[in-house]
Every structure is written in structure tokens, then in C-alpha cells.
Amino acid sequence: ICQLEVKLFCAIVGVAGSVFSVRVDMSDSVDDVKDAIKVKKPDTIKCEADKLQVYLAKKDGARLTEAGAESVVLDEHGHPRGFEKMMPSLWLKNAKYFGESFQPGEGQVHVLVVVPEGAVVSANEGSPDTMIKEIHAVTVGKKRKRYVLSRVGSTQGRQLLNDLDVQVELVRTVPFAAGEGSSVDPYKWESVIIECGKEIVLTEEQQRERYREYVERNIGAVLEEK
């Protein structure tokens, strides 16, 4: 005679430390086990119970330990290779699964749970450490872009503002009273010709002193007045 109520230990594949237990009757179907898993882990599993796939946590005739369950990985089709998928309509007491005389052993894992991609929340997701790591990955992990100001046009300028998350509000310009005969020639960025004949524009750092002299010479007096 099979024991009616038993405790089955389950592990979510791919989630470390996810071993938990559910209480079921041996006369229940595999589909009932899915319902029990969903009820036990509502904050971790974010899909309907029937979307879960469950596998018998047994390999080479031996049931898995917690360490063994944590080492299980999914193949390219999203299945734990080498484990038997449990059919929803079959009873737990079916000889293929646990049989009539099943007795759970200490330290065993009985069921592997595969949750659809994007429908599982790990135990530490949302914790401060995890959030800090995610922010770091976004702000530091991205490949840095380098802009040479002397080459930035209107399109690149808008992209630069977007990357820096800078919003610009358009305003009406105020006429600048420069005085009569005080037009200023545009600053010419220096460049050099390398051996292959290609022209290379010098960087802002290389032209800092020259540009400072240009500003002081042309609009230095106006700036002092302001």
C-alpha cells in the first residue's frame, strides 16, 4: 500500500539554492504537482502552473542530491539532458516515476522544475547588491564612446546629448553687442599631414594653449566686462 501524503523536494533548474518541498498525495497526477509548486513559489515563478515542465530528478538509477540538482544545465532546446520528462496526466504512483511503495530519502531531490525563460525571479534579484551590480553594468560595462569636439557635427552633437541624457530646451537668442568693427574670425583647428598623406586633426588637448590665446585675443576684453 503506498503512503498517501509525501513530501517531494524540487529544484528549479538554473537557480542556485532553489531546493524546496511540496506535500502531495501519491494518488495525485503530475499536473497536481505543478499546481503545488506554483502555490509554494508564487514570488519566484511568474507563469501559469501548466507552463512548467517537470522532470524526474533521477539519473543512472539514483536520485539527485542538492549539489547534483544545482549542477544540472539545460541543453539548446531548454531541456535538462538525460532526465525523463514527467507527463501531466500520469499519477505519481506510476511505476515510471515513484511507484506504489515510494519512500523519500533524506537529502534527495525528487523533481527538477524548468520554468519558461523570463518567468523566474532568482532569490537575490532586487536586492541592493544585485541592483548595484546592474547599475554598474549599465554605466561602466558599456563600451565608452569618444567624441572629438572639433569633428562633432549636428548629428553627432545630438547623439552626444542623448548619451549623456541631457535635455536641451530651445530659447530665443539674445543679440550680442560686440561693437563696431569687432568681427571675429573662426578658430581654425590645426592638423598635420602624416607620411601616407592623410590629414590628422590635432586633439583639443594638443591645441589647448593655442585655443586659449585665440579666446583671449578675440573676446578676452568682452569677457572681462561681463
Automatic annotation (TrEMBL):
<dbReference type="GO" id="GO:0005576">
    <property type="term" value="C:extracellular region"/>
</dbReference>
<dbReference type="GO" id="GO:0043657">
    <property type="term" value="C:host cell"/>
</dbReference>
<dbReference type="InterPro" id="IPR045379">
    <property type="entry name" value="Crinkler_N"/>
</dbReference>
<dbReference type="Pfam" id="PF20147">
    <property type="entry name" value="Crinkler"/>
</dbReference>
<protein>
    <recommendedName>
        <fullName>Crinkler effector protein N-terminal domain-containing protein</fullName>
    </recommendedName>
</protein>
<feature type="domain" description="Crinkler effector protein N-terminal">
    <location>
        <begin position="6"/>
        <end position="114"/>
    </location>
</feature>
<keyword id="KW-0964">Secreted</keyword>
